[in-house]
Amino acid sequence: TSFSTPKKKKRDDGMREHVTGCARSEGYYKIDKKDKLKYLNNSRAFAEEPPADTQVRRPPLLNAGRRSEQRRLLSSFTGSCDSDLLKFNQLKFRKKKLKFCKSHIHDWGLFAMEPIAADEMVIEYVGQNIRQVIADMREKRYEDEGIGSSYMFRVDHDTIIDATKCGNFARFINHSCNPNCYAKVITVESQKKIVIYSKQHINVNEEITYDYKFPIEDVKIPCLCGSENCRGTLN
């Protein structure tokens, strides 16, 4: 009752011919090293020499999305603020290297970790956009919670950016009567933003400062910037 298994033949192209017509029904069998080497050589030659009539497609660039975003923003730039919006677009994709640490002016401060040329965008002041009524309520609440400093920046008559609990490193920038930066309000896609510009060249490990320009009040806030032309108070 023993049947001899028929010897498996090879096709003209060198590959093994399946007796049952399907490789899955015959189980596992080992491929000769010669056949395997021949197959690998053929696959390498096909990969190295693509057909001449086929067009080689290059993989899409990784920054294609960024470029489309830049083109979309550039198309919306009109008027005299083109340079400001262009710089803001560059700032989004190439952020300045900054760090915050203890400052001799007040508590924490923001310092440059790379040289920054004059008239460059340093950082955007990020926070929650709130109305004046909400700002007054939050200021009282922060005092009740024991928060000594509130980081609120006025954009216009109706809008204030609150970075006390939701902001970035820009809230650590201290005031100076002789600052190396200044704040400017720009409009990007019908939305107002506050961006910190450099007034002069800023060296590595130099603290970034700007003038808060607080309104004049009876209760004075002492200034500790230590500059030669220090006014003595922030307001």
Automatic annotation (TrEMBL):
Alphabetized UniProt keyword annotations: Chromatin regulator, Methyltransferase, Nucleus, RNA-binding, S-adenosyl-L-methionine, Transcription, Transcription regulation, Transferase
Highest rank taxon of the organism: Eukaryota
Residues covered by the Post-SET domain: 219-235
GO biological process: methylation
One GO location term (cellular component): Set1C/COMPASS complex
Transmembrane regions: none
Xref: Pfam families: N-SET, SET
Keyword Heme recorded: no
Gene3D superfamilies: SET domain
Domain SET: 96-213
GO terms of molecular function: histone H3K4 methyltransferase activity; RNA binding
Cellular localisation: Nucleus
Name assigned to this protein: SET1B methyltransferase
Organism expressing this protein natively: Rhynochetos jubatus (kagu)
Organism classification: Eukaryota, Metazoa, Chordata, Craniata, Vertebrata
